[in-house]
């Protein structure tokens, strides 16, 4: 049985004060929830202060990115170990915004996933096709290479620390969500890939989150799908009321 996970990716939003305030509201409203994992990913500068706010609450902290090195001359970068030191439990890698805006490759993302796991943290690996790739029937091929290359060298044991987030690029921040069945179809395909790469056991144990315009009014339908184990929420995670409703999905 996979424990659902609802993760809020705050992207480049919120000051220190706003981040602490939102974290405090979430702690107050979600303190009794233990049947699903709740994760929030503030900007780097707010990680340490948000970490303090969520101490002794069920909410866990994630970073939105990392650099795959332990230490060294890497100006402006942050290692997984330092993110763990700041209170992070998870690191997001492979978000489509970074793939597109910063030209991140599957190989580089794979290094981040590996470094994250080696630092003892959980890796949230984002994958997803663009509209052009979907319309030109390249979706399955794209998802296959993102999974195969993104997880290269990751062992069966290490897979216990991996969460996949399927985020069709055309659904991110657009208000257009993949239909429940459309999302389920992609998730089932991804689970099949994991079975082929690893085993049925790994495929059944790995959580696959859906991301792309998840809102209070569509989360229940998505979460009712067999292979959807949670959500990676962008815009709606910035408002306490909306994120709380999403965390409290009913399916
Ligand atoms: O990381 C989150 C995704 O990019 C989804 O963002 P969104 O909920 O604003 O569409």
From TrEMBL:
GO terms for cellular component: cytosol. Pfam families: TIM. It is found in: Cytoplasm. Its main location: cytoplasm. CDD domains: TIM. Involved in the gluconeogenesis. Catalyzes stereospecifically the conversion of dihydroxyacetone phosphate (DHAP) to D-glyceraldehyde-3-phosphate (G3P). This is Triosephosphate isomerase. It comes from Pelovirga terrestris.
């Amino acid at each position: 049985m996979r424990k659902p996970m609802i993760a809020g990716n705050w992207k480049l939003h919120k000051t220190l004060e706003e981040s602490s305030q939102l974290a405090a509201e979430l702690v107050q409203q979600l303190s009794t929830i233990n049947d699903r994992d709740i994760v929030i990913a503030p900007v780097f500068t707010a990680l340490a202060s948000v970490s303090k706010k969520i101490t002794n609450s069920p909410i866990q902290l994630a970073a939105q990115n990392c650099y795959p090195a332990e230490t060294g001359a890497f100006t402006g970068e942050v290692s997984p170990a330092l993110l763990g030191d700041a209170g992070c439990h998870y690191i997001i890698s492979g978000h489509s915004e970074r793939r597109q805006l910063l030209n991140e490759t599957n190989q580089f993302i794979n290094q981040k996933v590996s470094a994250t796991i080696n630092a003892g943290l959980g890796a949230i690996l984002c994958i997803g096709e663009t509209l052009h790739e979907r319309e030109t029937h390249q979706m399955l091929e794209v998802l296959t290479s993102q999974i195969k290359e993104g997880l290269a060298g990751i062992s069966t044991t290490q897979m216990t620390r991996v969460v996949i987030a399927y985020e069709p690029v055309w659904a991110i921040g657009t208000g257009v969500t993949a239909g429940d069945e459309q999302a389920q179809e992609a998730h089932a395909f991804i689970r099949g890939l994991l079975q082929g790469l690893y085993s049925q056991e790994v495929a059944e144990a790995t959580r696959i989150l859906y991301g792309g315009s998840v809102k209070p009014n569509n989360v229940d339908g998505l979460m009712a799908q067999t292979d959807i184990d949670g959500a990676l929420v962008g815009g709606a995670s910035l408002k306490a009321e909306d994120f709380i409703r999403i965390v409290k999905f009913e399916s």
